[in-house]
Amino acid sequence: LMEGGRPFDALKYYGVVAKAYEAAYPENDNQRSMIFIKLSRAFRCCQQAESAVHNAEHALYMLDHNESPHLDLICEALIELAEAKAVRKDQDAGLVFEDVMNVIDTYHSLGNTERTIRMMPRLGVRMGVGHEQKFFYITPFDSDRVYHLGDHAMDRAEEYYRSVSNQEGLVRVLERRTQLLNTKFFEINSTSSRMRTLRGYSGRHASKHAHSSTPRELLMYSPTVHQAYLDRAALNNAPVGKEDEVMPGANRRIMDD
Q1: CB of 170 closer than 8 Å to CB of 161
Q2: Rounded CA gap, 95 and 117, in Å?
Q3: HSE toward the beta carbon, residue 221, CA cutoff 13 A
Q4: What is the rounded CA–CA span in Å between residue 175 and residue 101?
Q5: Helix, strand, coil fractions of the chain, as percent rounded to 5
Q6: How confident is the model at residue 47 (pLDDT cuts 50, 70, 90)?
Q7: What CA–CA distance (Å, rounded) separates 119 from 113?
Q8: More confidently predicted of 1 and 240
Q9: How far apart are CA 27 and CA 16, in angstroms?
Q10: Which of 75, 27, 36, 43 lies closest to 57 in space, CA to CA?
Q11: Cα separations (Å) of 205 from 41, 109, 121?
Q12: What does the mean pLDDT of the chain come to?
């Protein structure tokens, strides 16, 4: 009904579903938060901005008091709150859009979703039957919903700042969106594991690719930044000059040659 342009009818059904969810799910559950986000969108489409803001804030309150909230629901609730504030002509609507990116930067790993997907072209055969496996492209908008919501939030923030002629906010949002896109596609395109396997072209399979590090992890924990340290306290011997680091047991005896 919402997609068909009938928000008043959708609002009625959403209200019924919200009552049913209240009985079916525990307090502050993710499903209940989701229906309040939908209610907020329906109220906004019915030009009832106050009710839309109230429902979006209530959804955020429920997510805040949930032990394991879904990150995409938090982003969606923030987007709906910003949209409702923009309809109500509040001054801080753009900042709420930017809060979506703050949440994503803090709590979301853009490389984790691509961990297996970016390895899939290597699982196909070389160029024989079924070679199209090597050329499938899975959009990050399909594989990572949080990224999709972040991109959408930056898009809407750009439109909002253009409408209120706020140049500083516009530049800030465009830079943030560029940074998000570059980070995501760096995670997709950069190779961070072996291109050539030890023997044969089908040596490694998906179980191995699932555990290979993302490019960002390799940069973050590379030995230049994160120095590897060998604790020799549990070893029996050490190279010349490092003998003091070894901790042999008390009264230990070694037979000579």
Answers
A1: yes
A2: 33
A3: 8
A4: 12
A5: 60, 0, 40
A6: confident
A7: 12
A8: 240
A9: 17
A10: 36
A11: 44, 23, 11
A12: 87
The letter for the amino acid at 59 is A
Token look-up 């044969």 returns 200
Instruction: In whole angstroms, give the CA distance from residue 227 to residue 223.
Output: 5
Q: At what angle do helices 30-45 and 71-87 cross, to 10 degrees?
A: 20
Provide the residue type at 181 as one letter: L
CA angle 94, 56, 113 (to 5 degrees): 75
With 0-12 / 13-18 / 19 or more C-beta atoms within 10 angstroms meaning exposed / middle / buried, residue 240 is: exposed
Token pair 């604790």 is found at: 231
- 171: its two tokens: 């530049």
Q: Are 92 and 85 in contact (CB under 8 A)?
A: yes
- pLDDT tens, residue by residue, 106-127: 999 998 888 878 777 777 767 7
What is the C-alpha to C-alpha distance for residues 54 and 84, in angstroms, rounded to an integer? 9
